[in-house]
């Protein structure tokens, strides 16, 4: 009978080597059937102090362990529990390391039993889980966990998790289990016995694999083929809309506490009218309008009534998720058949089954991360409907491996009747049959930029979060490259010249020399790239001493102006040509390898050869793209673009970034988008400035378009009752004394936080100022009073920082650029929003400074026409972080007196809803906050 000894320890810290000791041990002995055979639990006297963090985490105090036994006093009870058993723990290296350390101290032999790590096991069997922490897994799987961070409770939950995972393993297809067995020896856990046992059960019993199909040697979920889309005749729009918004079977039957909102109905009407009349529309819909439901109703009506698909593009993945998982389900009941909506992404998101199988057959050289990645993908393929990498939580090096197996590697040409009919092709098929194709601004802009379409044909598009369109389009009509990415590509290209890849075929004399030449060319290209990057880095560093600009994430920036730095530009161009000559040589060497493979394919049928040819094709295409982009970038005669360089101030001496953007994106969008499509709807909560759409129309190419409707829908929230805007009049002048300003700001943050009990988001326009403020706050704020999180300083993504902020009762979150929008912290989690400065782009930033210069030459006022409206839209976005429902209340505290004293301050205020604005001393404002809250 297979036995498991599931162990959990609480310790004084993470490192036994630094003298940390066990303070509690819990053991659950379990049979494979799930029956608990025995339990053991004891506190342990650690012979050292328990740190405050551990006391807080576990609830175990010094006095709790004073009377507890030493480990040596309980070792005789513990040691037999592990005999003839698998040792199981959630992070086995930690628990087994501490356990064996104590056993050695007591004169016992360390344990060398077979082991199972439930972290690793969960990663393999639950590859789409957003987290693998024990408490959060228990919550997701609905396993009771009464006392987290107490040893016996954790051990019991680990036992429940193990039993669940073994059942999941048992249900996998035989093919998947057989392939897992091939990589088992690279994993931490000893799974072999279970893999073999479950393979035999499948082989000689019922295998229950009705929903599984074998494709390219892999067990995958049967693809769901869409029926051919049929046009449906719906009632006239006005009649149908009235039933949806007012009828008993309308939205009130599917939306809890549904409120009839005039603005939402108006938006549905305007979108429908634009579609019907082949017009464009610019629609600002204030927070709480319900704009996504409003435009979805009209978009689906259009798609079903005409049989034409509608494209919806968003800037953030969170909005895509909201549309697919929440809003579409709400509106689906309003239609006679289910809505066919697909999320459509670029090829690099989808797995290629043939390329993955090829890598799976070559697992003998894998390191741990790659073996774990393969195991996770094998299990994921048995249930994914999309094959989209964003579903799966890959380990750190897993993303690197993904590049080898994504659909991007699939060749456009078909050799040997070989077709890689996997997830990207299925996504295309689904999109062709869809009512709604949902995508992101990046892919959407790439589609309108390229001659060859990336999206299925469409005439009507809704651009949500449309205030981002100009920036994203500028990025995709320009150049973005960096040293690390180019080095990664060169390393990837080098794999094509490894002898081991070709050992199963016989090639003519000279092939080995060809491979050697290719590898030498790559080494030389890496050296040239390093020389170019170091040269650029040193020059940008030198220029930065003259007070050049910083990006919003702290990188040093240098604007490229041919006439101001001719020797630098000339040398950089010369060095880039040397690098590009080697890239061209690389293409030549790759083509020679490709020709040899094609020759073999004419005499030998082998499905591995098309895989290698497809990869070479992809790499040759990538080399050509790199060449074209760098030639374009170092062509300094092109005056229609702004070009700049960035370096990491603290980074390696060749960590450089190259950027270029066109000056006039409006003209390109006008030609490629608005003139080419029947109807384009642009919508956002922030498109107008002071009630006018002039700025947004100018930036995207709609300035003189006569078929564009303008619609301004105010928010239904009672801002006058829900918000107080406060501006202190006693802050030091930042231009005269930045240090004094930061001190006053830090004191204000702390004083306001005392009144609001934290729950405070502070928005900066300068990363440098954020860092200085964070350092100062840390000096005088006790972490037991307020937790402080800062973007770019505290570790983690924007979402992780937001979750950490919400997890603490009293916390302050400091954020820069990306926190000004798209962050939802509803309800009491956020009571105060502080804006440090009005969000003008720094005038020394490259794009801004060149645009200012150019507009000046054209006789335009760059401040009034560009800087001010751009800042107002950012300001409105920042303001919108505070009120996310009609029950939210809070303070907007703006530490910038220009709002009240500068001539242009009125434009910011007139862009806000009607709200009370108080202008007084910091102390008086804090008293008002206390009274109002």
From TrEMBL:
One of its GO terms (biological process) is DNA replication. It comes from Halobacillus dabanensis. It catalyses: ATP + H2O = ADP + phosphate + H(+). A motif (DEAH box) lies at residues 464-467. Belongs to the helicase family. DinG subfamily. Type 2 sub-subfamily. This is 3'-5' exonuclease DinG. Its cofactor is [4Fe-4S] cluster. It comes from the Bacteria. 3'-5' exonuclease. SUPFAM superfamilies: P-loop containing nucleoside triphosphate hydrolases (SSF52540), Ribonuclease H-like (SSF53098). Its EC number is 3.1.-.-. PROSITE patterns: HELICASE_ATP_BIND_2. ATP binds at residues 285-292. It is an enzyme of class 3 (hydrolase). GO terms for molecular function: 3'-5' exonuclease activity; 5'-3' DNA helicase activity; ATP binding; ATP hydrolysis activity; DNA binding; DNA-directed DNA polymerase activity. Pfam families: DEAD, Helicase_C_2, RNase_T.
């Amino acid at each position: 009978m297979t036995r498991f000894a599931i162990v959990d320890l609480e310790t004084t810290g993470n490192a036994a080597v630094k003298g940390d000791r066990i303070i509690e041990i819990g053991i659950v002995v379990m049979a494979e059937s799930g029956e608990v055979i025995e339990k053991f639990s004891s506190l342990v006297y650690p012979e050292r102090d328990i740190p405050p963090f551990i006391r807080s985490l576990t609830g175990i105090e010094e006095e709790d362990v004073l009377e507890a036994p030493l480990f040596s006093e309980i070792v005789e009870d513990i040691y037999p529990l592990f005999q003839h058993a698998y040792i199981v723990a959630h992070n086995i290296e930690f628990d087994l390391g501490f356990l064996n350390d104590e056993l050695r101290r007591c004169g016992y032999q360390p344990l060398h039993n077979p082991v199972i790590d439930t972290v690793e096991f969960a990663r393999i069997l639950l590859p789409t889980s957003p987290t693998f922490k024990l408490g959060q897994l228990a919550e997701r799987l609905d396993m009771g966990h009464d006392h987290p961070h107490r040893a016996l409770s954790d051990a019991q939950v680990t036992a429940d998790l193990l039993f669940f995972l073994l059942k999941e393993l048992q249900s996998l297809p035989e093919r998947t289990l057989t392939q897992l067995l091939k990589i088992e020896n690279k994993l931490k856990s000893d799974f072999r016995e279970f893999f073999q046992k479950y393979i035999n059960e499948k082989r000689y019993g019922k295998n229950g694999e009705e929903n599984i199909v074998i494709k390219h040697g892999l067990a995958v979920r049967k693809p769901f083929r869409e029926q051919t889309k049929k046009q449906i005749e719906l009632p006239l729009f006005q009649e149908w809309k009235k039933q949806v918004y007012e009828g008993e079977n309308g939205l009130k039957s599917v939306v809890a506490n549904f409120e009839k909102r005039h603005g939402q109905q108006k938006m549905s009407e305007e979108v429908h009218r634009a579609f019907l009349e082949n017009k464009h529309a610019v629609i600002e819909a204030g927070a709480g309008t319900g704009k996504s439901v409003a435009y979805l109703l009209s978009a689906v009506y259009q798609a079903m009534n005409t049989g034409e698909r509608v494209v919806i593009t968003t800037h953030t993945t969170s909005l895509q998720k909201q549309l697919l998982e929440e809003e579409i389900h709400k509106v689906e009941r309003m239609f006679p058949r289910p809505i066919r909506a697909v999320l459509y992404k670029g090829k690099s998101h989808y797995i290629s089954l043939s390329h993955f199988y090829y890598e799976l057959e070559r697992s003998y050289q894998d390191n741990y991360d790659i073996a774990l990645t393969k195991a996770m993908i094998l299990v994921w393929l048995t249930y994914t409907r999309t094959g989209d990498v964003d579903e799966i939580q890959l380990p750190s090096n897993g993303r690197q491996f993904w590049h080898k197996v994504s659909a991007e590697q699939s060749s456009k040409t078909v050799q040997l009747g070989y077709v890689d009919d996997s997830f990207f092709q299925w996504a295309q098929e689904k999109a062709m049959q869809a009512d709604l194709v949902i995508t992101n601004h990046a892919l959407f802009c790439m589609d309108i930029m390229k001659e060859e379409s990336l999206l299925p044909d469409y005439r009507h598009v809704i651009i949500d979060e449309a205030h981002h369109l100009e920036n994203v389009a500028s990025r995709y009509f320009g150049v973005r490259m960096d040293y690390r990415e180019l080095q990664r590509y060169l390393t990837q290209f080098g794999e094509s010249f490894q002898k081991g890849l070709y050992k199963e075929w016989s090639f003519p004399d000279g092939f080995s020399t060809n491979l050697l030449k290719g590898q030498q060319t790559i080494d030389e290209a890496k050296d040239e790239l390093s020389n170019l990057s170091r040269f650029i880095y040193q020059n940008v560093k030198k220029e930065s001493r003259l007070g050049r600009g910083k990006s919003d994430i702290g990188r040093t920036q240098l604007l490229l102006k041919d006439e101001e730095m001719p020797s630098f530009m000339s040398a950089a161009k010369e060095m880039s040509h040397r690098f590009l000559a080697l890239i061209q040589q690389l293409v030549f060497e790759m083509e020679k390898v490709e020709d040899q493979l094609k020759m073999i394919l004419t005499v030998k049928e082998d499905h591995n050869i098309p895989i290698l040819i497809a990869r070479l094709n992809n790499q040759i295409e990538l080399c050509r793209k790199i060449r074209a982009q760098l030639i374009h970038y170092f062509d300094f005669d092109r005056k229609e673009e702004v070009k700049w360089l960035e370096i990491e101030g603290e980074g390696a001496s060749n960590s450089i970034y190259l950027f270029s953007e066109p000056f006039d994106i409006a003209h390109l969008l006008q030609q490629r988008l608005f003139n080419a499509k029947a109807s384009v709807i642009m919508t956002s909560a922030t498109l107008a400035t002071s009630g006018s759409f002039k700025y947004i129309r100018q930036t995207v190419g709609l300035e003189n378009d006569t078929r564009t409707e303008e619609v301004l829908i105010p928010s239904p929230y009672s801002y006058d009752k829900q918000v107080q805007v406060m501006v202190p009049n006693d802050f030091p002048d930042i231009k005269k004394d930045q240090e004094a300003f930061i001190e006053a700001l830090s004191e204000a943050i702390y004083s306001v936080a005392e009144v609001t009990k934290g729950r405070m988001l502070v928005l900066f326009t300068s990363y440098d100022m954020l860092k200085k403020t964070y350092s100062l706050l840390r000096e005088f704020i006790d972490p037991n009073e307020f937790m402080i999180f800062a973007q770019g300083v505290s570790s983690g993504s924007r979402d992780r920082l937001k979750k950490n902020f919400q997890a603490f009762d009293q916390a302050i979150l400091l954020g820069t650029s990306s926190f000004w929008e798209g962050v939802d912290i509803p309800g009491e989690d956020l009571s105060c929003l502080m804006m440090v400065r009005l969000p003008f782009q720094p005038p020394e930033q490259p794009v801004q400074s060149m645009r200012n210069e150019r507009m000046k030459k054209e006789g335009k006022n760059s401040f009034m026409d560009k800087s001010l409206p751009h800042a107002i839209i950012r300001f409105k976005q920042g303001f919108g972080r505070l009120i996310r429902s009609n029950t939210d209340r809070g303070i907007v505290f703006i530490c910038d007196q220009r709002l009240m004293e500068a001539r242009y301050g009125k434009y910011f205020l007139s862009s806000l809803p009607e709200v009370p604005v108080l202008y007084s001393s910091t102390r008086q404002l804090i008293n008002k906050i206390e009274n109002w809250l």
